[in-house]
Design brief:
Structural class: alpha+beta
CATH class of one domain: Mainly Alpha
Helix content: 55-70%
CATH topology of one domain: Neurolysin, domain 3
CATH architecture of one domain: Orthogonal Bundle
Distance between the termini: 61 Å
Strand content: 5-15%
Radius of gyration: 25 Å
Length: 679
């Protein structure tokens, strides 16, 4: 019996990971695809006139098992993959692409959808949103095309699916392939004890006792380039990280990048759009590439002078401190940390003892309880895909089951870098039953050592709160349809719930809930919090310019600016020229490892981080005005979270804030508007 095709006889119908084997995935998917096609055929063969219920709602529920299997598979491929899963993915993704096209290019089905769309009446707001979204999905995926053009779309989608998978596999393989193996203790100069201890344990894990191993996973790479006094070794690590999937080997992603960009452009043209960005932005708050370009240009105008000044000041500091003639990219984090310590008398090494992972998690839960009345209880009865994963039941203020939360915090070989929130099941209402979501947050934090618990840098604290903000968006979902539930919102709105929660990490009232020294239990001192807040805008000009650069690169790849035959390295150098504040490193390339846009869902959407920062800065000003745990403001924001994509985000935001967002709120918070003061 294939466990993926049975009703899950588990607590809260969570996936039975211990029963699921690699051999189950493709047979289960093929069975589910067959049933999904049968569901669609029933809709098409219905002799009754097309209605919202027998067409739009029926399509929403068609092939539900396909979604269940896909969510489990792709989440494992990101967090607990292996060679066999990656091999399966090469067949899995094209099958899904073909299935999606069979639906979106089905002329009989579209005829019924269009009939409902053209004659809609008596629908509530959520039903109208689902109808509009469904109709646009067909139109945007080629329903109005000729049969020849539909076949072109099918072929392009199949190719894109395979190319995206190959891109991600190459980045993961390149990340795993590099190790800095040190045997001389002098090479550890400058590194904090916790970094050295973790490197020693990594060496032991790889059979090299008595040595130290560093790799390109963030918990190893970031501390090394931040603290290592050995410039040559920082350079070696930086060059390895920056050149991932750009070296002259069979894991080079240059061809994948060029083909993906070219095929996306071709697809957009067939559908009647000037570019892939035009296609994507039709379903975003920004609406068109020109809006994004102007938005980024306005931010750059304020941020670049600050960034240039910051880099010059840092170069002067490095010259005075160590006689450094030229500041390079492998020097930036190291000297930034030194300057921050001097300027604010604060550093990650001093902060980390106050941020043990368990306490930070408890603190995030406490914030959710103060704001929204949520209760979190760890469970031992939930099946897990890896022993490191923790599972929690989430209840609302009345004691009702709200969600299951999976928390996966530590790096391992089969897990990609970075941090993300995902789901194994989205919230929906079916047959009168509110089916609650299964939400997961995945991070890559340093594992506990023999002498210390997992201690987070402040940046990692922000990361955890960020992903927990996404999780709250999913857990608080309370709509009817899964495709409009939780994080199923416009992409340039989806980062608001995550980014706003980061603001609480700078507030003493919040930090007192969890920032306690892991040895003494002492709360984080007031003066340290004060210095932490003062340091919040340190190097903000540089950081903002860097984000604008990444967003600009994304838009360049997806507005058809890449010319045939142009070198990927030359193209990137030209695009980033206006946002490069440090010398380019030969051999490095951002695009070849830019997983957000070539593997994830951020193509023509990376700008959304900054776009959402405007929203979150403006929204948090209201919390600051009323109180960061003000129940009235929190209730309004909870309404925004619960609505998911059932209401247009601009309307949701105005309902919460009582006005449109103030674009200057972000610049005020970042300290880039010197003549204004924050609310």
């Amino acid at each position: 019996m294939n466990p993926l095709l049975q009703a899950f006889q588990t607590p809260f119908q969570t996936p039975p990971f211990s029963l699921i084997k690699e051999i189950h995935f493709l047979p289960a998917l093929q069975d589910a695809l067959t049933k999904g096609r049968e569901d669609v055929a029933k809709i098409c063969s219905n002799t009754d006139s097309a209605t919202f219920k027998n067409t739009i709602e029926a399509l929403e529920y068609a092939g539900e098992q396909v979604g269940v299997i896909s969510e489990i598979f792709f989440n494992l491929n990101s967090a607990e993959t292996n060679d066999e899963i990656q091999e399966i993915a090469r067949d899995f993704s094209p099958l899904l692409a073909e299935y999606g096209n069979d639906i979106m290019l089905n002329a009989d089905l579209f005829k019924r959808v269009k009939a409902v769309y053209d004659n809609a009446s008596g629908l509530n707001d959520e039903e109208q949103m689902l109808l509009t979204k469904t109709y646009r999905a067909f139109a945007r995926n080629g329903a109005n095309l000729s049969e020849e053009e539909k076949e072109e779309i099918r072929e392009i989608d199949k190719q894109l699916s395979g190319l995206s998978l190959g891109f991600g596999e190459n980045v993961l393989a390149e990340t795993n392939a590099f190790e800095l193996h040190l045997t001389n203790a002098d090479d550890l100069d400058g590194l904090p004890d916790y970094v050295v201890e973790a490197a020693a344990e990594l060496a032991t894990d790889t059979g090299r006792d008595g040595a130290w191993v560093f790799n390109l996973q963030y918990p190893s790479y970031i501390p090394f380039v931040t603290y290592s006094a050995k410039r040559a070794l920082r350079e070696k690590m930086n060059r390895a990280f920056g050149s991932r999937a750009n070296a002259a080997n069979d894991r080079n992603n240059s061809s994948n990048v060029l083909q993906i960009a070219k095929l996306r452009q071709q697809r957009a043209a067939i559908l009647g759009f000037n570019s892939h960005a035009d296609y994507v932005l039709q379903e975003r708050m920004a609406e068109k590439p020109e809006t994004v370009s102007n938005f980024l240009a306005n931010i750059l105008e304020s941020a670049k002078p600050a960034g240039e000044s910051e880099v010059q000041n840092l170069a002067n500091f490095a010259q005075q401190l160590d006689g450094l003639d030229h500041l390079e990219k492998w020097d930036f984090a190291y000297y930034s940390e030194k300057l921050k310590q001097q300027k604010f008398e604060i550093d990650d090494d001093a902060l980390k003892p106050y941020f043990s992972l368990d306490k930070v998690v408890t603190g995030a839960f406490a914030v959710a309880e103060r704001l929204y009345g949520l209760k979190f209880t760890e469970l031992s009865t939930i099946d897990k895909y890896h022993p490191d994963v923790q599972t929690f039941e989430v209840k609302d203020g009345n004691g009702n089951h709200l969600s299951v939360l999976y928390a996966d915090f530590f790096p391992r070989k089969g897990k990609r870098n970075g941090a993300w929130m995902t789901s194994f099941r989205s919230q929906k209402v079916k047959n009168g039953k509110n089916i609650r979501p299964l939400i997961s947050i995945v991070c890559n934090f340093s594992k506990p050592t023999q002498s210390k618990p997992s201690l987070l840098t402040f940046q990692e604290v922000l990361t955890l709160f960020h992903e927990f903000g996404h999780a709250l968006h999913g857990m608080l979902a309370n709509g009817t349809y899964a495709s409009l539930s939780g994080t199923s919102v416009y992409w340039d709105f989806v980062e608001l719930p995550s980014q706003i929660l980061e603001n609480w990490c700078y507030e003493k009232e919040c930090l007192d809930l969890f920032a306690h020294h892991y040895e003494t239990g002492e709360k984080i001192p007031d003066d340290m919090v004060k210095r932490l807040k003062e340091s919040a805008t340190f190097m903000e000009g540089y950081a903002t310019v860097r984000q604008v650069g990444l967003a600009t690169l994304d838009m360049a790849w997806h507005t058809g600016k890449a010319e045939n035959g142009e070198s990927i390295n030359d193209f990137e150098t030209e695009v980033l020229a206006s946002t490069e504040l440090l010398p380019k490193v030969s051999g490095s390339n951002t695009s070849t490892a830019f997983s957000h846009i070539f593997q994830g869902g951020y193509s023509a959407g990376y700008y959304s981080y900054k776009w959402a920062e405007v929203l979150d800065a403006d929204a948090f000003e209201l919390f600051l005005e009323k109180g960061i745990f003000n129940t009235e403001v929190a209730a309004k924001f909870k309404t925004l979270l619960s609505a998911g994509g059932s209401v247009h985000p601009a309307t949701l935001y105005r309902n919460f804030r009582g006005q449109n967002p103030d674009p200057k709120a972000l610049l005020r918070r970042a300290g880039l508007l010197k003549t204004e003061t924050a609310v």
